[in-house]
Specification:
Residues 115-123 and 269-276 have low confidence and may be disordered. The protein has 10 helices and 10 strands. It is α/β, with parallel strands linked by helices. The protein has 2 domains: 1-144, HUPs (Rossmann fold, 3-Layer(aba) Sandwich), CATH 3.40.50.620; 147-296, Rossmann fold (3-Layer(aba) Sandwich), CATH 3.40.50. It has helices spanning 14-28, 50-76, 93-101, 116-121, 125-132, 171-180, 203-229, 246-253, 269-275, 278-285, and strands spanning 2-6, 31-38, 83-90, 106-110, 137-140, 155-159, 184-191, 236-243, 259-264, 290-294. A 10-stranded mixed β-sheet has the order 3-2-1-4-5-10-9-6-7-8, with helices on both faces. The radius of gyration is 22 Å and the shape is elongated.
C-alpha cells in the first residue's frame, strides 16, 4: 500500500501527522509519500513597486528554502523501509492533493476543529478532500486530542447503518483494510431509538418498549453477525450495538481500536450544514485516526 500524506508546514502539527502516519504505515506495511502545497505564487500581480517586488521575492525564496529543509527532515524521520518520496505542489490545497494522489491507496491529512458556521463558509482541507477524493481518506486527530497507544491493538471497527438502503456497501473495502493491517474487524450499528426513553412516562408503555427494543437488538446483532460471517476468517471480529447519536457513540468506542472506519456520502454545502454528516463529525471529534471510505 502507498499513502500520500498532506502536511501543512505553516503550523506545528506536521511532525505529529508524519509520526502517526508512519505508525500506520508500519502497521499496514505501507510506503509514505509526503506532500505540502505552496499556495502562494511569488509576488502578487498588484505589487507595482520594483523594490517591494524584489523584497517579497527574496523573502519568499527564504521561506521556500526553509519549507524544503523542514520537509526533508520530516521525510527522513520516516523509517527507511516505509519512506517514499516528497512532493512540493502548487495551487489550492484540496485539488492539488487529490490530483497528486493518483494511484495512492489513501490520502492522509490532519484533522481540524471547526465550528459549524466556519465549516459552512470556508470548510477545511480535510473536509474538501473527503467530499471529492476517489480514494479513502485517513484523518489524524490534532495532537491535543490524539490518544496515544503503547502498542497496536490489531483491532479496527467499521460503522454499519443497518437501516440504510446501502448498509454494508463499503464492507468489502473495510475488509480489505483490516486484512492489510492484520486486524480483527468489529462491526457496530448505532441505535438511536432509546433516545426517546426519557419521554416515556407510563410504566406499562415503557415495559413494552423495552421488550420490543430487546427483540430488535437481538435481530440487529444477528444481522451484524451475518455480515461478519461473510468476512475472511482471519479478520472476523465482534458485532456491537451502541446507543445514542451516531457520531458520539462511535467516538466513545475509539479508545478500543487502532482506528475507526466510517462510510461517507460526500455531502457538501447547505445539505451538510442542515443535516450534518456522521463521517465528518467523527472526523472532527475522534481521539483515534479515522479512515473514511466512500459509499458506492
Amino acid at each position: 500500500m502507498r499513502f500520500l500524506v498532506g502536511i501543512n508546514l505553516r503550523d506545528g502539527e506536521a511532525e505529529h501527522v508524519v509520526r502517526q502516519s508512519a505508525a500506520l504505515a508500519q502497521a499496514g506495511r505501507a510506503t509514505l509519500d509526503l506532500a505540502y502545497v505552496d499556495d502562494v505564487s511569488g509576488v502578487p500581480s498588484w505589487v507595482s513597486d520594483p523594490l517591494s517586488a524584489q523584497a517579497l521575492t527574496t523573502q519568499w525564496t527564504q521561506v521556500q528554502r526553509a519549507n524544503e529543509d523542514r520537509l526533508q527532515l520530516l521525510h527522513h524521520s520516516v523509517a527507511e523501509n516505509h519512506r517514499g518520496t516528497t512532493y512540493r505542489l502548487t495551487g489550492k490545497a484540496a485539488p492539488a492533493l487529490i490530483q497528486a494522489a493518483g494511484t495512492h491507496d489513501a490520502i492522509v491529512l490532519a484533522g481540524r476543529q471547526h465550528s459549524t458556521l466556519s465549516k459552512v463558509m470556508i470548510g477545511s482541507v480535510a473536509a474538501k478532500v473527503v467530499q471529492t477524493a476517489g480514494q479513502p481518506v485517513v484523518v489524524i486527530p490534532a495532537r491535543d486530542r490524539f490518544l496515544e497507544f503503547e502498542a497496536q491493538k490489531h483491532r479496527v471497527v467499521f460503522g454499519v447503518d443497518l437501516n440504510a438502503k446501502d448498509a454494508g456497501t463499503a464492507l468489502a473495502e473495510a475488509s480489505r483494510w483490516a486484512q492489510a493491517f492484520d486486524a480483527k474487524l468489529d462491526l457496530v450499528h448505532v441505535d438511536r431509538s432509546r433516545l426517546h426513553v426519557p419521554y416515556i412516562l407510563d410504566p406499562d408503555v415503557r415495559k413494552r418498549f423495552d421488550h420490543e427494543w430487546a427483540m430488535v437488538r437481538e435481530r440487529d446483532l444477528g444481522r451484524l453477525q451475518t455480515l461478519i460471517d461473510s468476512l475472511p476468517t482471519q479478520i472476523r471480529g465482534l458485532p456491537r450495538i451502541a446507543e445514542g447519536e451516531a457520531h458520539t457513540a462511535l467516538c466513545e468506542l475509539a479508545p478500543d481500536y487502532d482506528f475507526l472506519m466510517v462510510a461517507t456520502h460526500g455531502r457538501t454545502g447547505m445539505d451538510l450544514w442542515v443535516v450534518g454528516s456522521v463521517a465528518e463529525r467523527v472526523m472532527q471529534e475522534s481521539v483515534r485516526p479515522v479512515l473514511l471510505l466512500r459509499a458506492r
